[in-house]
Amino acid sequence: MAENIRRNSKQRQLVLEAVKSTCTHPTAEEVFQIVRQQNPTISLGTVYRNLNLLAEMGLILKLDLGVERDHFDGTNEEHGHLVCTRCGAIEDLPCALSASIRSTMEHELDRQMDSIYLTVTGLCKECSCGHMKQ
Amino acid sequence: MAENIRRNSKQRQLVLEAVKSTCTHPTAEEVFQIVRQQNPTISLGTVYRNLNLLAEMGLILKLDLGVERDHFDGTNEEHGHLVCTRCGAIEDLPCALSASIRSTMEHELDRQMDSIYLTVTGLCKECSCGHMKQ
DNA sequence: TTAAGTGCAAACAGTTTGCAGGCAT
DNA sequence: ATGCCTGCAAACTGTTTGCACTTAA
Asked: N or C, fewer C-beta in 10 Å, chain A?
């Protein structure tokens, strides 16, 4: 499993930009749709390959939120997510929350930890205070 | 989506017992293997159907831990899980941790919450202190 | 020049589902 | 007798992969 030398393909750049430039936590299919506007011949397989590669490289996060599809996140800081039960939107939770879980667990369990995956379901900001506006 | 009246099939009983009587958080396939010892003609499809049904009924938990397969948990109290990066074992985290996340979030975010899914990766109890024993 | 990257389509894995018959109520 | 449940196998869905070709370095 040696680290290959990565080249800089147009496709990979576009995929990275697409994920970085949105805060909606797109799925592979959604990234595909975005990227296709710049490069109509890109294939879905290439999008998947690059998303996985970029996640391995630590440039983006691959999120398994317990919903059907994987989502991708343009940041690489550890933070949880809220999945809205009303509209399906995905909202970032403050990093501080993950950090405090980490420290609590290190104290209480006295165990090395790798990653923390925190997902909560509930109403997003929009849905919880915007009922009448819509 | 009316609630059907549930019958009490032998298969469903066996599936429930299988999940309840272990703390290993089995996959559907593993439940299938266990149940097959009592009922060699049960089908994997039936196991899946009953696992989902029992989870809907709130008798067990369906866990998406970010690994390939879903796992099932015989308890119904809200608690997180640790997935061991060395042996793959799944360990329960104290319920108190999820409870404290819930209260923190209710204070900080002032938002209704449905469920909390907390998964951490790291070494399980066995792997973190039992290196020499093995 | 050469090996990483691509597009395409087929394969894959876990899970779900349609159907005809079986069994709890 | 009714209709929920089963076993079976086929279908489904999101994702991965093999192959021949292309392209960055």
From this structure: N
